[in-house]
Amino acid sequence: MNQDYLMTVIEGPHVSEKTTQASEKYNQVVFQVRKDATKEEVKQAVELMFEVKVESVQVLNSRGKLKRTGRSAGRRKSTRKAYVRLAEGDDIDFLGAD
Question: What pLDDT score was predicted for residue 96?
Fold first, then answer.
């Protein structure tokens, strides 16, 4: 796989209460990924960017919510999230704290 492409697969981390619990309980990290990314591409991208061992990847497509302001209606952007389970002992620190 082309390394330049793999560097664009991950759009950023997804941080919420649910992802924090997944991190503590299951040693998982959640990322926003490209809509056309496969599980294997996500796995290779995480291993390349963060130098960790990935055990498994689960992918979730979330439809954007319909929102209204007065008479006008709009839709939030649809996203694709990847739940990445890391090998025992591996960790990704987004804050850079030691």
Answer: 66
